[in-house]
Automatic annotation (TrEMBL):
PANTHER family: LEUCINE-SPECIFIC-BINDING PROTEIN, PERIPLASMIC BINDING PROTEIN OF ABC TRANSPORTER FOR NATURAL AMINO ACIDS
Protein name: ABC transporter substrate-binding protein
Keyword field contains Nucleotide-binding: no
The entry's keywords: Amino-acid transport, Signal, Transport
Domain Leucine-binding protein as annotated: residue spans: 56-206
Signal peptide, first to last residue: 1-21
Length: 395
């Protein structure tokens, strides 16, 4: 009998390796990060020139994080890094879709993001990790797109809440002359109405072209900005709408009246800041800096968060099936941690990721919105941006 048992166990052991080997084969979950670089003007400050791995470094950290859990779940994650220009973006998207990639993180402007989402259709889920246009969450919303990047309305509301908490309700709004500047200015106007601020005066800063970074640049600014801002109506704060990065950085310390500058310069709303330390931020920053040998930028954070959403869905569903992961991410059961003190969830009416917004200076996070006094019947985070009753999105 003993010999029979030994023989039986030996037979099981001999039969086990093929089955175990089959189970050990990890399920591959593929994604791509498509960054569309616009060869426009350089930033005003050379310190703001994006690094070559902008966004991609965040993707690499996310894949490391996903694989840390994936190793125990029999899952393997990868994210192809693709750079394109506005002219080559469609071809690169065709290639990515042709390879069967079901998740594409897009770092592009509003128009390109919308075009790529339409191109992908039902073949892939698009994660918008850069474009902030409210139209992408409104009249131009797409069912296949998740917005990881905060909207302009969220940014404007975050700043407005803080300014009202400071009892600075009188705003001097300076708007740039580019279409994206107008869109941001419209968001500030909406926020002023929403939270009870008053825009006492508006001025348009025309972009006349010419050199932006020259040896005499600061000399010209020192003469021009005080003249441009003089004789404004009595105001508490300047709110700059300068998405094109033409003039706002020159406003601090150069205005006619001694007033704080906010919006596109001075006190700036951001999705992430390299000085953020709360809620485990220090450990997160350290890991990124060790990996990338630089500080984390917003594009890195938003790309990291998009890929972490995929990893979280795979872990929770224990599946690598893109259809299963998409369904779970869009369900009310989904949430993801983002080092912002609370779980981040998706709005079902426009697929915008709810998240706190950091209000930052050059070296610090000055505050985080939503501010405590602004409450909501569903989620306090829905005090930022377009709420369900206001949405123009129809999937």
């Amino acid at each position: 009998m003993f010999k029979g048992i030994i023989g039986l166990l030996a037979g099981i052991c001999l039969a086990a390796p093929p089955a175990l080997a089959q189970q050990a084969e990890p399920q591959l979950i593929r994604a791509a990060v498509l960054r569309v670089d616009d060869p426009g003007l350089p930033p005003i400050s050379r310190l703001d020139i994006p690094p070559e791995d902008d966004g991609f470094a965040g993707a690499r950290l996310a894949i490391e994080d996903n694989d840390t859990t994936g190793r125990f779940m029999g899952q393997d994650f990868e994210a192809e890094e693709v750079t394109a220009t506005p002219e080559t973006a469609a071809a690169e998207m065709d290639r990515i879709l042709g390879e069967g990639v079901a998740f594409v993180v897009v770092l592009a402007d509003d128009a390109t993001t919308l075009a790529l989402a339409d191109q992908a259709g039902e073949r892939a889920m698009i994660f918008n990790a850069a474009a902030r246009g409210d139209n992408l969450r409104g009249a131009d919303c797409r069912a296949n797109t998740v917005h990881v990047a905060p909207s302009q309305a969220m940014m404007a509301d975050a700043l407005a809440q803080f300014l009202m908490w400071k009892n600075w309700p009188r705003w001097f709004l300076i708007e740039g002359s580019h279409p994206q500047d107008k869109a941001l200015a419209d968001a500030f106007r909406r926020s002023a109405t929403k939270f009870g601020a008053k825009i006492v005066e508006e001025r348009l800063y025309e972009d006349t072209g010419g050199a932006r970074r020259t040896d005499s640049g600061h000399v010209q600014v020192q003469k021009q900005m005080p003249v441009f801002t003089q004789r404004a109506a009595e105001h508490d704060v300047i709110v700059a709408a300068d998405e094109a990065d033409i003039f706002a950085a020159y406003l601090p310390y150069q205005t006619w009246d001694a007033r704080p500058v906010t919006g596109s310069a001075g006190l700036v709303p951001r999705s992430w800041h390299p000085a953020m330390e709360a809620w485990g931020g220090t450990q997160f920053q350290n890991r990124f800096e060790k990996l990338a040998n630089r500080r984390m930028r917003e594009a890195d954070y938003q790309t990291w968060l998009a890929l972490r959403m995929i990893g979280e869905a795979a872990t929770r569903t224990q599946s690598a099936d893109p259809a299963v992961l998409k369904e779970f991410m869009l369900s009310d059961q989904f949430d993801v941690a983002g080092f912002k003190g609370q779980k981040l969830t998706l709005r079902d009416w426009d697929h915008q990721l709810r998240q706190p917004i950091l209000l930052t200076t050059g070296n610090l996070t000055a505050s985080v919105s939503p501010q405590d006094q602004y409450l909501h019947q569903t989620s306090q985070l829905d005090t930022l941006g377009i709420d369900r009753p206001e949405t123009e999105c129809q999937f």
